[in-house]
Amino acid sequence: MNELLLMCTIAGRSAAIPALRVQSVLEIDTVTPIPGTPDYVCGITPLRSQALTVIDCSLALGFDQPSNSPERRAAVIEHDGHTYALLVDAAEDVAQATSDPVAIPGGLGEGWQRAAIGMVETESGPVVLVDVETIIAGPPALAA
Amino acid sequence: MDELLADFIAETREMLEQSGTELVAWEADPSDKARIDTIFRFVHTVKGNCGFFDFPQLERLSHAAEDALAECRAGRREPDSALVSAVLAIIDRIGAMTDAIEAGEELDGKDDDALIAALDASGPTEIQSEVTVQPEAVDEAGEDAPAKGQRQSMQRSIRLPVDLLDEVMKGVSDMVLARNDLARRLREAGEQPTIDGPFERLSAILADVRTSITRMRMQRLEHLFSSLPRLVRDLSNELGKQVMVDFEGGEVELDREMIEMVRDPLTHIIRNAIDHGIEKPVDRLKKGKREIGLMRFAARQSGNQISLLVTDDGNGIDVDRLSEKAVAAGIYSHSEIKQMSQAQKLQLIFEPGLSTAAEVSSISGRGVGMDVVRSNLERVGGAIAVSSKPGEGTSFHLQLPLTLSIIAALTVSSDGQHYALPRSYIEEIVFGSSSSVEFAEAGERRLVTFRGRRVPCISLADVLGTESNERCDWESKTLVLIRLASDDVFALAVDRVHDHEDVVVKPIAPAIMATRLYAGTTLLDDGSPMMLIDLPSIAQMRGLVGELRSKPAIIAETQDKEEKAATPVMLFAGLDGRKRAVRLELVRRIDTVYADAFDIEGDRAQAVIEGRIFPLAGIEHGALPADRCRLLRLSDGESEVVYAVSEVLDAAEMTEEIVPSANDRSIEGVTLIGGKPVPLIDGHTLFQRHGVPQRSDSPLVCRLPQNSEWARTILEPLVVAAGYRIAGDAEEEADLAIALAGDTADETPGARETVRLRPDPEDTGDGSIYRYDRDGLMAVLKRVRTGRAA
Questions:
Q1: What is the pTM of this model?
Q2: CATH label of the domain that carries residue A60
Q3: What is the ipTM of this complex?
Q4: Which of A50, B56, B306, B611 is most enclosed, with most CB atoms within 10 A?
């Protein structure tokens, strides 16, 4: 309840990332690809003297299409001592959740179901609250 | 209060370490008052501090030790081995108590009476102690009062958490990146004098700060060394041996964390050396050695590496027994051992599960072997090598990186992207197109034959999955020869090799780690990231490690070399930075000169050293450095030639044959030194081209004003030093005459050239030279000589 959310678009759908986890939102300039890594790892990008691991949220959720992100916006998140940039289609605003996350009967559909903490209501309607750890872990085939 | 206690513990620790060394040194020379003072101060400080914290046991112990030492200081008691041992025991006990206090444990109620009694055991004169000792102790009480005649001046210091240091280091790295960014923008904006100046200054300051920050993490090796004599003493006492320790290079600085890392491996080596290496005094005497064994520790910094040599003069490693053990342990078969060289057999000491100890003692042979030492060192990017001569001793050679986070790397590119390879694995770089390289295929495996060695070859692009082997144009690649710590060799083909760089390595996310291809990431100066390739892991994945281990013959030298007479050579880097060699007999000496010593015009190149002019060679390889330059002075016995180099590297022995070069007459040929090809300068061609007979055979003649005191006392030595002979009488033909302005009478025919010196610094425009214009005068002397030589 009243949790702050970063509203964004992942794989064409409205989604939200818990704003507490997000250090900043940045526009990614250049990404150095890393050969040999799974597709959802786009590469690394420098942020000050750090190297961020760039992860494509859409691919990480198991969708076929990479994020369609003209502005190349990414949410910077720290997990387990490493810093990641989660690339999303768009990152709009910070909003307040007006409900606790709830499960939806019948589920959210493949990909979403696995990565979702649940659905939350916001001023602008319901969104899927995603679990950053799941995104970082990558699509199911690789996570296994 | 907690902070106070932490300080007390830290202070006690620090002093503990120091006094351990002092005690041992004191035992060797009991008359050394300064050392007793140090130890006395330690126990005294502990005693004093105990007053604050209420540790009665600790207080009692330190008090007892203090009393005994005070007796010695007052000269009423001769310190003997028993006393030293007793004091050491008390200091150990204090250490153990300190540990307990730090851990927040209750001090165990062990009875310390025995320890204290040991102090008194041999005290012959105890009667008057009470009265006289106390005032002295009080006298010394002010611990902040600098001790008289203290040998090392104490630096003021404080303790800081490492986290904070890391934070500051990160901040400075950020600043450097921001500076680089700013520099780029400034460059784009064109020259701006008002900004460029301060920016330069900022850059310089930043560079200094960066260096100081790095140094904050550094510590002198002395710190580590200081704890070793105690260890050696205890071990040798326990085993009934006598061992002396010798240190060299204690001033070398190393990352604090790295020092802690080396402590264990070093301890292990010392234990081994004293337990198995150094013989008992009787046995040593029988062999004609000194009764006392010697362990030497020598540290040296070379670039980004510290090399640490640990040598003992013991019995050496019994290679045969080592081999037997290896067979017994099932690591190698008899036939495999038979094929090994002595050196290879010696390497068995690093095999897991091998110990030369006949039986497990309390000192060594407990299964934690040299393999653990080696893997611990390798984990931090170091290396260890061993050499041993039967009956003469063993030395271990440790190579350590300066810090944990900065490594020397080679940047290469593959498929348009840069990668870093850890420098420590790289043995050599060759072009795929080079005629000395031959590619072959065996099944799916690409092999490359290089200098008689056939090694597997993999392409970095293939490893990273950006280009398959089938499409690889091997000839266009550059091959980096990699030698892993396990001695496995393979060639890694990359598109290009760029640069040597010291890179700061940062950890990478687990998803990238999972590929097992990368060991970390690093940022280039322009802020763009670059991946550090994990070579051992790649070799493992590609099966390059195990395969070769079972068949060491593949990479073994195609033929065992015969013993050849060694010719001493000097290795140097030419002006182009390439390594070359010259026969050592040719080298007379090495000079360093400034740029103005050179005189180069067209084909003629000369250099002036101490007023003598030498033909100059070596400049065809590159530009002379802007300020100072190193010169090798070569001589064929008659004439001398100087050879400009960028760096004098080392003396070495040339044992391999010289492969002559048909096209390049300036070299005798190419030979292998330490496995690397080095061109050897051809002395004959060199002196044929550049050599002129030494001028002392026919020095130029200079006539000086006959009747001038000044000319005789001031001018003459100068002219003589420049290689001239002073004309004997007025009749003799001179190459140069020097006359004093206005002294027309002395003008003599028979000189090719006359120079006038004037007494007045003001230029009068008559072409004369001010008599104290030494440079001007030397220039004339030089011009006349070179004029004749040309």
A1: 0.48
A2: 2.40.50.180
A3: 0.86
A4: B306
